[in-house]
Amino acid sequence: MPQGNPIAVPADGLTTRARRNTPVLAVHTGDGKGKSTAAFGMALRAWNAGMRVAVFQFVKSAKWKVGEEAAFRELGELHERTGVGGAVEWHKMGSGWSWSRKAGSEVDHAAAAADGWAEIRRRMAQQRHDFYVLDEFTYPLKWGWVDADEVVNALQARPGHQHVVITGRDAPPGLIEAADLVTEMGKVKHPMDAGRKGQKGIEW
Amino acid sequence: MPQGNPIAVPADGLTTRARRNTPVLAVHTGDGKGKSTAAFGMALRAWNAGMRVAVFQFVKSAKWKVGEEAAFRELGELHERTGVGGAVEWHKMGSGWSWSRKAGSEVDHAAAAADGWAEIRRRMAQQRHDFYVLDEFTYPLKWGWVDADEVVNALQARPGHQHVVITGRDAPPGLIEAADLVTEMGKVKHPMDAGRKGQKGIEW
């Protein structure tokens, strides 16, 4: 539980209010569980605060996140019906992005990841959402499908008050450097080590 | 993202199905952020799977979790109205528990924590919920308000298929030992280190 009092007040010339309203870039990395789950927990809080939430899943198969996706779709519908919370969009790379015409049986994952990032960059320029989850986005960076320096520059230049959470192992050093909040999820013990398989409602 | 294949198959005499259906005891500990947030993300997934979710917050002031609480109350109402997802209960110690008559201006926090645990133990015996979040429950254990060995014994003896997630720093060794899934959230960088205060939708 974070304390309300900052450890130090920086000499950055900002008022407390300006500093408080700084948009957050968060990175959840490490080998342990909870990176995406904590990001979705943050998104839940953002939704409750009325923010427009958008999730972008950079994975080929999204089967592990169907529970979160279904729950957020319910929250998005609740917002549309009653005005409670914020709008929700959920996009996954799967076999091509939902906004793309390129989907087909022969998908170039590197190109799809680059397309995904290009779209996110466009949306950030338009300030289309308030809270972005770029789930497992570290992998296309690691594999060189998307240029990490370009990502860091675009994130640092994003206008307005847009929060971004990026998840995945092996976050590149430049991203760690640029982030305001970095949490390393370390695995201490995992049931799959004991030979258990995942189960519905727990693993996905 | 966990892989679908377990690293090793244990010689525990269980079928894959029996092992898959083993209820999970998870602990989120460490000095970093995301312990509770990841627990609420898991609860969201459990809710979507139709599980009866119950959250018990063992903190005096629950101001940091109001966003999650509000969002889960919406999900609980959505369930009651439409049958989607599972039932939700959210209890916080605050100044006494909601089920207790003892609330008053002079609250004995040690006694309140013990009452909270006694109630959870009763509910587990009755299999009243499917997914329990015992938020910041490590603190009453650490401070000796609730006996850690008794907790571990009760958790290990819980009947049926009840999942439990416990959050907080300094989880006692016996609890770590008993847990199926332990994640250590390590702080790498936090905006409050840079003199920022928390902001709505991000910190609470």
Automatic annotation (TrEMBL), chains A, B:
GO BP field: cobalamin biosynthetic process
Keyword Transferase: yes
UniProt GO molecular function: ATP binding; corrinoid adenosyltransferase activity
InterPro entries membership: CblAdoTrfase_CobA, P-loop_NTPase
UniProt keyword terms in alphabetical order: Transferase
Protein name: Cob(I)yrinic acid a,c-diamide adenosyltransferase
Originating species: Mycobacterium gordonae
